[in-house]
Write a structure and sequence with these properties.
There is one protein chain. The protein is of the alpha/beta class. The protein has 14 helices and 10 strands. It has 2 domains: 2-108 and 209-310, Periplasmic binding protein-like II (D-Maltodextrin-Binding Protein, domain 2); 111-203, 3-Layer(aba) Sandwich (D-Maltodextrin-Binding Protein, domain 2). The protein has helices spanning 2-23, 40-47, 50-53, 66-75, 87-94, 138-148, 165-173, 186-192, 217-222, 224-242, 247-258, 262-274, 286-297, 307-310, and strands at residues 25-32, 56-63, 80-85, 99-104, 111-115, 129-132, 158-161, 179-183, 196-200, 211-216. Strand 6 (129-132), helix 6 and strand 7 form a beta-alpha-beta unit. The N and C termini lie far apart (51 Å).
Length: 315
């Protein structure tokens, strides 16, 4: 009897699990590049069951550039986006895209300028080639602040453009550029391979936020509850990341996903904690977005949008 009851219980459990799987709501999520430290919360939410607890099945799709990610979001092939450099939704919104910022993701720039051997400071880059994301991109905003802090302007260097840290690191390793603006873990990998760290963006632009989470406005008009569930799961993942007792598990988790060197991932964990990278709130602080907007307009003073209209509160 116990055996029969055990089989019946197991079958009931499987049936329940299958029903839950069928009931899970799909969310197509966009991001840039490939799995990396700045999308850590997504993999935490997936691994720790925070998405599943909200009844969501989240599928991530990577684009090679922020512009391509925004195109997918605008067209509706993805419904939400994470870790989007704030310049990209601003550019898209100015062009009429039906998107909105629903969360600040990274509240500081997790970048360093990494150069070939022989360079000792940002000033040494005068007349040399530096790779950033794009002429009006998020990394250009930070690099411009770093130049200003060293008494330089963008006219003092030449630029090569690549949309992701992985692509910029590849250009640096290939010798195609003299320096690259990189985020973690690649910046630590580059240091380990003999490249030189010329400085961190956060030391020049501490209050300029980095990334945002986005929605397709047409989709969220009929799926607001789904978007809120996603944001709640994401916030739980950030809280989990913030808890020091989860450090080892977080490092192992990202290593399993990226296959990058575990010591570099450990350095990334410490670095992101040190600069208080992830915003914990689902409330969009418009003052922070305005701070980025001000820095962004230094690249192009003719650029204007209504920041308030770009923001949608789904807290």
């Amino acid at each position: 009897m116990r055996t029969r009851m055990g089989w019946m219980a197991a079958l009931a459990f499987l049936a329940c699990a299958a029903a839950q799987a069928r009931a899970a709501e799909n969310v197509e999520l966009g991001a840039v590049g490939a799995a990396n430290a700045v999308v850590w919360p997504h993999y935490i939410a997936e691994k720790q069951g925070f998405y599943a607890a909200e009844g969501l099945a989240v599928h991530i799709f990577y684009s090679q550039t922020g512009a391509a990610m925004l195109q997918a979001l605008t067209s509706g092939s993805t419904k939400m986006g994470i870790a989007a450099g704030i310049a990209d939704p601003m550019n898209a919104f100015a062009a009429g895209a039906g998107i909105a910022i629903v969360r600040i993701d990274g509240q500081s720039g997790p970048y360093a300028v990494i150069a070939k051997k022989g360079f000792k400071s940002i000033k040494d880059l005068k007349g040399h080639v530096v790779t950033v994301d794009e002429a009006r991109g998020a990394t250009m905003v930070y690099f411009n602040k770093m130049l200003e802090g060293n008494g330089m302007t963008r006219k003092d260097v030449d630029f090569s453009y690549a949309g992701s840290t992985a692509a910029r690191f590849a250009a640096l390793e290939a010798g195609a550029v003299d320096a690259a603006i990189l985020t973690a873990p690649q910046l630590f990998t580059a240091e380990g391979r003999g490249f030189v760290n010329l400085g961190y963006a956060v030391d020049y632009a501490k209050d300029v936020p980095f990334t945002a989470d986005l929605v397709n406005r047409a989709w969220v008009a009929t799926h607001e509850a789904t978007a809120r569930k996603f944001l709640d799961a994401y916030a739980k993942a950030i809280a989990w990341f913030d808890d020091p007792k989860n450090k080892d598990a977080a490092i192992e988790l990202l290593h399993d996903v990226t296959k990058m060197d575990q010591p570099d991932i450990a350095k990334s964990y410490d670095f992101l904690h040190k600069i208080d990278f992830f915003d914990r709130s689902n409330h969009v602080d418009e003052a922070k977005i305005a701070t980025f907007y001000k820095a962004f307009r230094e690249l192009d003073p003719s650029f204007t949008i209504d920041v308030k209209k770009l923001v949608m509160q789904l807290e």
